[in-house]
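Student: Hello, beginner here. Can you help me understand the protein record under this note? Any guidance would be welcome.
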Amino acid sequence: MERATFSKYSWIDFAFSVVGVCTFLVDWGSDVWVATELYCRGDVVWFAVLVGLMVLSSVVVQTFSWFWFKYDRELPGFRNQTVGASVFFGDRVTLFCVLHVLQLGFLCRHISAIRQGFRVWWRKEEGSEYAVYLTHDLSMLRLIETFCESAPQLTLMIYVMLHTNKARTVQFVSIAASTTSIAWMVVDYHRSLRSFLPDKAKQGWCSSLIYFLWNLLLIAPRVAALALFASALSGYMAAHFLMLWSVFALWAWQQGTNFMDSVGGEWLYRATVGLIWYFSWFNVAEGQTRSRSVIYHSFITTDGVILLTTWWCYRDPVQTESYALALLIALPLIYLLGLLFKALYYCCFHPKLWRPPVRDPGLPVDQPDADVSFRVFSIQDGDLSSQLLNKRMAGHAARFYSKKGFIRNSDSTNGAESPRL
């Protein structure tokens, strides 16, 4: 069987781990500061909404982390690892459970990744596979946190600014930084997935930039449209969210997702996917990826038009006179520009196959590209029972880069793929 060399832990991974824990602490500190300011100003409703988003996001992330801990501790490879933070494994399950109840499990994962990364990168010790494993899980958890907390908070921030009709420079800077951070987390997750694809070229900085731009240009007008709708009809915002979230969660169920190792965990995942889809596209299943993407963007475009039209009809003409027409024209154009950048990315900047994949004769011919790394290749020149494969992220790579979503050009000599939207 063909062996593949997966990406080793590097100083860039270590830097991302350090930045990740710093961002986590700064994010929580800023959230507490904003919540305190709202409470001191007497904005009890907004304070309650903000705290509710913080608590909900934390509970969801800690629940995923706990589920994964329970699944992973049964893997033989994990029991052989020298883990950075000893609370993660061994016989300290109770302590780790308490840490998750106290909402500290995600932070402990960051600390463990830093310590393990320091051992591997600086001291040149063994354990690179486990360090990489941790970074993949953290990438997914950060993505979940982004759309459970950061995206809703950004919507709330814009809504408060519109509702009060007061905008300070620091608010604009904060909104721009939050939107950029959300788009960047999507790029970070995407780059993490690509490490499972040994047959594909690595994603360069130019490719990453285009990927970042089309996510930024699609997410920003979506969040703005939601905030504008809420500023005019705040009472209907919860109904809008619940209706779309329910539809998206059922759509995820209909696609037969298989990410978690339990029924309860899988429904939590589908509910989280529904929340992510409320703001941005996220592929969760193999098959006709392009068709699902077109359906999704058509639905979101229609919903955005309805939101903006409703806001235009029910807005305060006097209060919104200075910016209403500009936003009504700019937001659809920005979203259209984002779709064009997405098409440009898959046409010109999506990394191509750099060599034909080596296939197991016993596997079907139409295996997705990522399944080559997941099912055919082993991680190292050792038994898989003593090595670590992040099954969750490898499975996501298989679905995200499903070959059924694109058409291979059989005449190409370099194995290039036609774009998959």
